[in-house]
């Protein structure tokens, strides 16, 4: 099992698919990375040589922000917005949708489970 950026990537999957298990690497980035390193798209992780795994690891470390660093950076950006008390920061603070979605109905993912209001009919 190959370990890249602190994540054990699955061995029986193709390299492009397996790289998407790393937070911060999506399908497009994974494809660009394999093309840049000259790894065929049909190659499986179990078929990679140690040198190729090291190549992938170094390319990710040098060029991309992934896993813990990316999560920390995102959390700091949200915290900054909350500290500024701008509109987006207030929405984050209240746990409401940030990007202008309607909240009269829907928005259950952000708002949580519906709480019944006593005495409200209609």
Write a brief structural summary:
The chain has 122 residues and is mainly alpha-helical. Helices cover 49% and strands 5% of the residues.
Textual characterization of the structure:
The structure is a single chain. By secondary structure, the chain is mostly helical. It is 49% helix and 5% strand. It contains six helices and two strands, in the order ββαααααα. The protein has a two-stranded antiparallel ribbon. Strand 1 (2-4) and strand 2 (7-9) form a beta hairpin. Helix 4 (67-84) packs across helix 5. The mean pLDDT is 93.
Characteristic terms for this protein:
mainly alpha; 122 residues; two-stranded antiparallel sheet; 2 strands; 6 helices; 5% strand; Helicase, Ruva Protein, domain 3; single chain; 2 domains; 30s ribosomal protein s13, domain 2
- Write down the oligomeric state: single chain
Order of helices and strands: EEHHHHHH
Residue fraction in strands: under 5%
The CATH class name of the largest domain reads Mainly Alpha
Termini gap: 58 Å
Computed structural class: mainly alpha
Tell me the strand order in the biggest sheet. 1-2
Number of domains: 2
Please give the number of β-strands. 2
Strand count, sense and barrel status of the largest sheet are: 2 strands, antiparallel
- What's the shape? elongated
Q: The CATH topology of the largest domain, please? A: Helicase, Ruva Protein, domain 3
């Amino acid at each position: 099992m190959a370990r890249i950026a602190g994540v054990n990537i699955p061995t029986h999957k193709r390299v492009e698919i397996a790289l998407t298990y790393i937070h911060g690497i999506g399908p497009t980035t994974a494809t660009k990375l394999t093309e840049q390193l000259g790894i065929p798209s049909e190659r499986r992780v179990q078929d990679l040589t140690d040198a190729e795994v090291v190549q992938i690891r170094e390319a990710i470390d040098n060029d991309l922000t992934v896993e813990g660093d990316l999560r920390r950076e995102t959390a700091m950006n949200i915290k900054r917005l909350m500290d500024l008390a701008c509109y987006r920061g207030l929405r984050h603070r209240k746990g409401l949708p940030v990007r202008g979605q309607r909240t009269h109905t829907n928005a259950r993912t952000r708002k949580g489970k519906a709480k019944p209001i006593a005495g409200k009919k209609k």
